[in-house]
Amino acid sequence: MLRLLRFRLLAVIPTIVLVSLLTFALSHLLPGSVGETILGAQASPEAVAEIETSMGLDKPLPTQYMSWAGDALRGDFGESIAVERGQEVRSMITSRLPTTLSLAGFALLLAVCLGIPAGALAAFRSSSLTDRVITVVASIGLAVPSFWLAIVLVRWLASELGWFPSFGYSPLGDGVGSWLHSLVLPALALGLPSAALIARQSRAALLEVLQQDYIRTALAVGLRTRTVLFRYALKNAMVPIITIIGFQAAFVLGGSVVIERVFGLPGFGSLALKAVLAQDIPVVQAYVLFIALLVILINLVVDVSYGWFNPKVRQ
User: Fold this and answer.
1) How many C-beta atoms surround the C-beta of residue 7 within 10 A?
2) Which end of the chain, N or C, is less packed with Cβ atoms under 10 Å?
3) 315 vs 67: CA distance, rounded Å
4) What percent of the chain is predicted at pLDDT more than 90?
């Protein structure tokens, strides 16, 4: 297991370097220039050149990259040049990141807690009415966009029934109850499509395992159905399920941008959207790099979990 972990950690290093290079390249791919964003489109070329020189943007690209990468390793992404001009990007991230992580974590938890049991039930009762209903519901869940589902949930559960707030976010410091209450609708809108995909993958993986001879033997000798399903079948089917969960973890991180916008959540995703529209390059770079690192971390956890569920992978 330690050998597998060391191998995966070494494989992460070139990925991080490549991501940092692509992130740095954003400042040169976007239209316009940093100086024009700060001073405005009407600024003179001399003023734009002067401010870009003061920021070191007149140096060769390799020098700029090494300077930027060194600052990024220390957590210094510079200052915002448009969204909150003069504000440190690091403080903007730390103030908004808990909201995004809370939303994404809650949505993924709902997706896993709903998707795996539904898929297991459908697989164990294959070709029954229960299986057909779960399959149809999962197909509908895959077809429904998250933003449309968010609007429906707001209209039904917030506006008509008044069970949940339709707008805003309560931080964890205000109490666990109010924090969860403000996240239920956004997490449902973001997590239900993922739950549908996890349910379909769980059903397919479990169907393949349930057809194996050792499962039939275990049931034939009189072992309890619950024991066979959870102790033997589900564990051996977890590798493809864990894979799809890893994909969905990355999906909910990216999808949080739209959901935060719909529900007015002060998260990292909504900040990134404002930064893209305002061409606030330091904030965009910080967002892309941070989300990419989170996805790399998720993939690392998924890869290592393979060795936990399947000992053959450890070799």
Assistant:
1) 11
2) C
3) 40
4) 6
Which residues are registered as beta bridge partners of 79? 88
Q: 30-41 b/e with 16+ CB inside 10 Å = b?
A: eeebbbbbbbee
In a 3-state reduction of DSSP, which class is residue 76?
Answer: coil
Contacts 24+ apart (CB under 8 A), 11-15: 12/296, 12/300, 15/296
Q: What is the DSSP letter of 83?
A: T
| Residue 284, phi then psi, degrees to nearest 5 | -65, -45
pLDDT at residue 266 above 80? yes
Question: Token pair of 155, please?
Answer: 């209209």
Mean pLDDT calculated for residue range 82-90: 79
Domain(s) of CATH 1.10.3720.10: residues in the chain: 98-314
In the beta sheet, which residues pair with residue 88?
Answer: 79
Contact call for residues 5 and 304 (beta carbons, < 8 A): yes
Number of neighbouring beta carbons within 10 Å of residue 302: 18
| Fold for the domain defined by 98-314 | MetI-like fold (1.10.3720)
95-123 pLDDT tens trace: 888 888 888 899 999 999 999 999 888 88
Residue with tokens 């931080």: 171
Asked whether the whole model's pTM tops 0.85, one would answer no
b/e sequence 169-189, b meaning 16+ C-beta within 10 Å: bbeeeeeeeebeebbbbbbbb
> What DSSP line would sit under 228-288, residue for residue?
IIIIIIHHHTHHHHHHHHHHHHHHHHHHHHHHHHHHT---HHHHHHHHHHHT-HHHHHHHH
Q: How far apart are CA 277 and CA 275, in angstroms?
A: 5
